Amino acid sequence: MKVLIVTTVRFRFNGITSVILNYFKNMDRSDMQIDFVTPNQISDEYMAELKAANSRVFYIDRKGNPLKYLIKLMKLLKKEKYNIIHIHGNSSMMLIDVLPAVVAGIPVRIVHSHNTTCDHICLHKLLNPLFRVCYTHGFACGQDAGRWLYGDRKFIELKNGIDVDNYRFDEKVREQYRTKLGIGDKILLGHVGNFIEQKNHTFLIDLFADLLRSSSNYVLLLISDGALMKEIKNKVNRLGISDNVIFLGKTPKVNKYLQAIDIFLLPSLYEGLPVVLIEAQSTGVPCIVSEKVSAEANLTGTIKFVNIDHTDSWVSEIKACTDTLSISDRYAVCATNQEIISQNGYNVTRNAQLLKQYYKDFLRGKEI
Predict the structure, then answer these.
(1) What is the 3-state secondary structure (H, E, C) of 152-198?
(2) Are 136 and 98 in contact (CB under 8 A)?
């Protein structure tokens, strides 16, 4: 079985890449050849990991010239004769990835929805009718993400599984990583997400500045990087709060830092079912989240959803949460949350086995 995984977003530290790699690492690949098409040159770390698994990575620039991209992808598909193409994205603009597969005669053409909206709504709507006749099977990370892309058509919900053992709360790990950050006994607020408009860092910095006016006993940890990082750093400096904000950048130790964090914040403008919220709940950390995030993400019933129109409600929620923080409670919440997460189908080992079975069934002609 030959499978080509195509990601329409940069293959780097982000939610979609995490999902792709989680399934890849946990799947039995003994009878499979899995290769990748990425829109960017990937890091040496990722390249070494994929090469060690005998996978090949083909870089094709997706943004510069869509027609050129389409032709290059079609040539690759014809040459390598893949059985399956599995495309990860957010909108009908996956048409430029799935259409070459139609022309190349790839029998199984999977598109995978990871969000509940996109940045180019008009183009998405324009391409949707043709997009719908080009794929053979639709996947989605959740019901909301599926309805967004497929409407009333059938789709398979393939949940973003994680290895919960990697997120089990450990006070020793917590203290180790808080020591690395040098924050002492201050309350650590955390955010994980690329510096792009969707993640709403501008609002996050505004609410944090408001919070500091009432108490300086808070530190904000920002994990990842991105195009808007310099702009956000400049804003932090202008507001005079740089001593209380840590720009960590990318790290493979997100699971460790989530244990160091006291409160997790996600004020996104939109989200499907973000992996990081599954991860955060798995560590037992309190989560305060934008109402624009899919309610499906509240697997454990512990997430607080807050409107992003005003910072006041966020500041109030953070203060209320601060008053109830407890290490002993964190252990108990973590244990309960991990049980719920596993029971609700977010175990990556089981889900990777399920994905492989879907591949086999689809090749045998089984419909959704």
Answers:
(1) CCCCEECCCCECHHHHCCCHHHHHHHHHHHCCCCCEEEEEECCCCHH
(2) no
Single-letter amino acid, residue 48: A
* Model confidence pLDDT, tens digit, residues 117-174: 888 899 999 999 999 999 999 999 999 999 999 999 999 999 988 999 999 999 999 9
- H or E segment at 137? strand 137-140
Helices (runs of H) and strands (runs of E) counted in the chain: 14, 13
Q: Compute the half-sphere exposure of residue 196: CA atoms within 13 Å on the CB side of its CA.
A: 13
Whole-angstrom Cα distance, residue 215 to residue 220?
A: 13
Q: Are 302 and 286 in contact (CB under 8 A)?
A: yes
| Other CB atoms within 10 A of residue 109 CB | 23
Alpha helices in 135-246 (DSSP H): 143-150, 171-181, 201-214, 229-238
Q: Is 350 exposed, middle or buried (0-12, 13-18, 19+ CB in 10 A)?
A: middle
Distance linking the first and last C-alpha atoms of the chain: 20
Cα–Cα distance for residue pair 162/26, rounded to 1 Å: 10
364: helix, coil or strand? coil
